[in-house]
Amino acid sequence: MLKNFEPNKIFVITSKATKYVRGLFFIIVFIGLIEALILSPEDYLQSHSVRIMYVHVPSAWISLGIFSSIAILSFLILFFKNKPSILIAKSLAPSGLVFSIIALVTGSIWGKPTWGTWWAWDARITSMLILCLFYFIYIIAWRIYQDTEKVNKVTSFIALIGAVNLPIVKYSVDWWSTLHQPASVSVFEKTSIHHTMLIPLALMTAAFALFSLLIFLMKYNTELIKIKNKGLDRL
Amino acid sequence: MYGKKVKLRFIFLSSIFLILILSVFLILKSLEENVVYFISPSEIKSLNEIDNNKKIRVGGMVKKNSIQMSQNTVNFVITDFKNEINVIYSGAIPNLFGEGKGVVAEGFLNDRSYLKAKKILAKHDENYMPPEVKEALEEKN
Q1: What confidence tier does B47 reach under pLDDT thresholds 50, 70, 90?
Q2: What ipTM was assigned to the predicted interfaces of this complex?
Q3: Can you list the pairs that B29-37 forms with residues at least 24 positions away whose Cβ atoms lie under 8 Å?
């Protein structure tokens, strides 16, 4: 399936999928926002400013998730010359960049009323900024190089270097003393967020994931059209 | 399954990747002093020498019943439940600052048990819950 990459056939599927993903996104984001802004309770300590969490945390998760996906795809591109991965990785990057910026900005807005500062050079925040810069470098690299062979190698290599930063972002709060609090939600341990607050968090994460899927599909379709315009049937 | 070329590429790139991880690890290890955002009162106690002109950050819990507010200065004690340090501060106080809560104070050491803070930041923990749940938890204890 992956060997015969035919833009025409894929385009038929992805252009239809956009419509459904968009519909689902609007439904989930509508319910999610009502839950997050109206129905969910205020925090015992932070009162209403806890609602920033419902944007901040999903954005951070998704920007980490997208970079992880780009890194895995880049691994396939570099080692196995897997052609379909190239366009997928390229199309994933813009929404990842946007969500990493949202995570930084909302974190800053949240930090002022709770911690008392807009910015702190602690390990979590700095490594998140580095992730954001890697997204920038990755996207700029796609624009700089014209030669197909070269651009694939350079961008994939940047993604692999950036992958080293991912565990640092994730575990910085456990490895070093940081101003940022440790993780509240974990796969293996009991979550320290009350379930009434966990519901909007889950819904907003789903909504943001659908949004990045939507942006991905639109970008991916554009890339497919570009290939078609060049008169190539396969990559 | 894969040709010699793929194998060579694999060895080449994974060795670069390993070297990269190792070097990042070593860099972070050697910069540990700068990577940590604050140090604990116990670490201050164990410092060999103190530099009165070097800005440092001390973090821990605000000791219960230690906050003394006067006109425009605040006195409180940061504890890590082993050692303590007195802090004097004047200026804006973050919302979440309070007794029994986490705090990071940035300023200059007078001696090993006295810090003149220029800035204080409230440190938040990972627990989120509605006020009613908090009350119920407190009643239980």
Answers
A1: confident
A2: 0.85
A3: B32/A176, B35/A123, B35/A176, B36/A123, B36/A176, B36/A177, B36/A178, B37/A120, B37/A121, B37/A122, B37/A123, B37/A176, B37/A177, B37/A178, B37/A179, B37/B104
